[in-house]
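Q: Hi! First time doing this. I have a protein sequence and I read that you can turn it into a structure. Is that right? Here it is:
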Amino acid sequence: MDDRQQVDLVVVGLGPGGEALATGAAKAGLRVVAVDKHLVGGECPYYGCIPTKMMLRAADALAEADRAGTLAGDVTVVPSWTPVARRVSQDATADWDDRAAVERLEAAGATVLHGAARLDGARRVVVDPAGGSGPLTFEASRGVVLNPGTRPAAPPVPGLEGTPYWTNRDAVRATELPGSLVVLGGGPIGCELAQVFVRFGVRVTLVQRGERLLPGDEPEASRLLRDVLEGEGVEVLTGAEASAVEHAEGVFTVTLQDGRRLEGDQLLVAAGRRSNLDGTGLESVGLSADDLAVDERLRAQDGLWVLGDVTGHGAYTHVSMYQSAIALRDVLGEDGAPARYEAVPHTTFTDPEVAGVGLTESAARAAGLAVRVGTADLGASSRGFTHGPGAVGLVKLVEDADRGVLVGGSVVGPAGGEILSMITLAVHAAVPVSTLSTMIYAYPTFHRTIESALADLEA
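A: Yes, that's right. Below is the predicted 3D structure, encoded as structure tokens:
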């Protein structure tokens, strides 16, 4: 390949959104160069969505086996991490090999490069290929798409740097489990992995700097999940912050600001994510990573589209994929609906699942809406009663009373993310609450709890 090429489009960052856009653009006949310095597919298939859900599924199977004693008779299960590690390595990630993803992109017609890429002025990208060959420069007539994603962030705790702590990336590659684990961070990643490991017999302490777990969700959901985790043996410490970390003789010691000292064979840092915009050369086109903004077509400026986590609309695979379809239409000069974010759903895949969409009650009130709230106990439903152990949860609906439509909702419970889909549709399409209240809800189902929450909304 020449060290300078004229192409139609360069896509930098091949997480789900970037990969999908590059594939679509190449299939549409554009000359596409697709670049990633790590694995084609991004965080989701190798370290996030797919392998962690395999881990959670395994942990759920252990919990169900334990519940079988109440429902169906005596069951004895000896937990083993070996089949989990094998499924993650072989079935989910192909041992963290992206060859199949590269081949799919190439089959679509794209040129795929591994290496670091940076903007070097408008519609120009310089790539330093992996392997040490000289830099390549591409001039892109249509423009450039950035999908840089994020990476695990480490808090500035004295002593942490240089220790062999885990992030989510290390946790999914584990072939053996520690006897004890301290988790820093009570967001979705911290809560999911804490439950996985405690169910496999690891002694887990979960340290959350804020006053509650899952701070982006409703307080009722946070309380319920905390009760579940503590009931399973997780020591949950909220309003607690690490002030120092030590690692000696194979043991981590975490000192909290109040002087308490926690010990664990391993330390998992799940304290947020950091943007990968650094090093992308935004300054060469007059932009800054600190105040980067995109319009409803994902354009940061003429000939530059930005997708995914860094746009600030949720670090979710489904948001990146949604944005990629909108940006692809714009790249191809096609019409279509602009981006809208009032009904972005999310799910934390603990057991029970914690799912939400739109505005929480506090966010709706902060926005100045005339708020009405309806709640219902999912565990007290007929389906919850028949389901038995594990059927704890709730449904919470947030209504803009002036408009008579839902602006948010939460579901905690078995398959909470699936139940949420009905609420997501209602928020997205602004279905009147009066219409939702006259629907027929199948009996006995978990989603029928939504009907009970609607009745509470109108009480």
